[in-house]
Amino acid sequence: ELTDTDAGTYWGTPMDITDEEAIWAMLSAPITVVDDGRKDAYKGQQRVYAEPDDDSRVVAVVTGESQGVRVIETLDNGWSLIELYSSTFHDNSIQAWNMLVQGYVKTSHLKTKEINKKYHIIVDKLTQRLYLFSEEGLVSTLLVSTGLSNEKQPYNETRSGEYLLFSPTGAFPSES
User: Fold this and answer.
1) What pTM value is reported for the model?
2) pLDDT for 78 beyond 80
3) How far apart are CA 53 and CA 151, in angstroms?
4) CA 31, 46, 93 angle in degrees (round to 5)?
5) What's the half-sphere exposure (Cβ side, CA atoms, 13 Å) at 168?
6) In angstroms, what is the C-alpha Rg of the chain?
7) pLDDT, tens digit, 9 for 90 and up, residues 16-43
8) Terminal-to-terminal C-alpha distance of the chain
9) How far out from the chain centre does Cα 8 lie?
């Protein structure tokens, strides 16, 4: 169940691509990520546990400080209940490919990240469209081809969720 603190976030914004003001507010809002302090935490996989205990079953993985998570509850014992789309890969023993999962991480590993306010994208897997936004609104809509899950490769679907891009991206020419 969504809370008042979810309003204006990825988790609480209705997906109406025509409401550019609401979309921009959501895209430029700070996000919560899991960061254990390692140098390469943006790409490292962090475990998400079934119970608030390092010895409990792992139910998902989160891609470090590049993947947004929703904090549901912060417990007094140093753990927090979070929600995320599991980002397990084909070679991971946790076979929760792209599943919406709730689980626990250490509260000390949760960090709030400010967002670059220049450009943001939304990839709509249903319509196979990429929407490029800036402060002025929708800049462009592009056709894309996302990965699909299949029986042989159930992990192949393009990940769902909220992500920060850490790699340099290409330029957006003003012509055409």
Assistant:
1) 0.81
2) yes
3) 33
4) 135
5) 2
6) 17
7) 788 888 888 888 889 999 987 776 655 6
8) 43
9) 15
